[in-house]
Automatic annotation (TrEMBL):
Stored InterPro entries: Ig-like_dom (IPR007110), Ig-like_dom_sf (IPR036179), Ig-like_fold (IPR013783), Ig_sub (IPR003599), Ig_V-set (IPR013106), TCR_variable_region (IPR051287)
SUPFAM superfamilies in the cross-refs: Immunoglobulin
Keywords, ordered alphabetically: Adaptive immunity, Immunity, Immunoglobulin domain, Receptor, Signal, T cell receptor
PROSITE patterns: IG_LIKE
Organism: Stegastes partitus (bicolor damselfish)
Name of the protein in question: Ig-like domain-containing protein
Taxonomic classification: Eukaryota, Metazoa, Chordata, Craniata, Vertebrata
Domain Ig-like: 15-122, 141-244
Length: 244
């Protein structure tokens, strides 16, 4: 969701992911492995580990998931080129037969299966000498062909001290729907989790900072309200839908 308008998520101290800070440079046709280690208060059987790709000025694009909900690769990221295995404390991403289009920033994410916990993301850059065109995607983890989500407006403005509401509309054939909001300050930082809310009339939600943020959801839409606006709220906001 694009928006001109945000408080950082405070994740549980024992839940974190870590990636090496250095860039990786490789030649076309090579195989590279992007490292990601994690610590969690949950058991490996309770965790889902995810990888995302973000091209210049683009949305984070879901690559794959490994863990409690089973293994899954997004259609454009075939397992014969993009694969990962969850080890005791790591989930390295292997990319084979490198192409120039693989140049991007890659994020690994930890997501407990316990309802209401946010994804925790950490950035890693895979560099190449070729600059890329931006690629925008509105698909997020859990989406398939009949599930879509999009913002009502590309840009929203507000006045300091006042409130503003961002809205997205979604469509899905699934009965159980989870709706998420994220804030993204810059390409140098991972998107920050704001809140999670059950869609299609569900009442469950997880909003770490209820003083700052509020949300309403229906069978076809999700809304994020940001209160007491400050200049620090200026950012790009993402809405996401996950089906089960």
């Amino acid at each position: 969701m694009g928006g001109r308008l945000a408080k950082e998520t405070v994740c549980k101290a024992e839940d974190k992911v870590t990636q090496p800070p250095e860039d990786i440079i490789a030649a076309e046709g090579d195989t590279v492995t992007l490292e990601c280690t994690f610590e969690s208060s949950y058991t490996t059987a309770q965790l889902n580990m995810l990888w995302y790709k973000q091209e210049v000025n683009g949305f984070p694009k879901y690559i794959l998931r490994r863990g409690a909900y089973g293994d899954d690769n997004a259609p454009e990221f075939h397992k014969d080129r993009f694969d990962a295995q969850v080890n005791k404390k790591s989930v390295p991403l292997k990319i084979q037969k490198l192409q120039l289009s693989d140049s991007a920033v890659y994020y690994c994410a930890l997501k407990p299966t316990v309802t209401g916990n946010s994804e925790i993301l950490s950035p890693l850059s895979l560099m190449d000498n070729m600059s890329l065109m931006a690629s925008f995607s509105r698909l997020f983890p859990g989406l398939i062909a009949e599930t879509t989500i999009s913002p009502e407006q590309d840009e929203v403005s507000g006045t300091e001290g006042q409130s503003v509401t961002l809205a997205c509309n979604y469509m899905t054939d699934y009965e159980y729907v989870d709706l998420y909001w994220y804030k993204h300050h810059s390409d140098l930082q991972a998107p920050q989790f704001i809140l999670w809310k059950r869609g299609k009339g569900g009442s469950s939600e997880h909003i770490p900072d209820k003083r700052k943020y509020g949300s309403q959801a229906s069978a076809t839409s999700t809304r994020l309200t940001i209160r007491e606006l400050t200049l620090a709220d200026t950012a790009l906001y993402y809405c996401a839908v996950e089906t089960q």
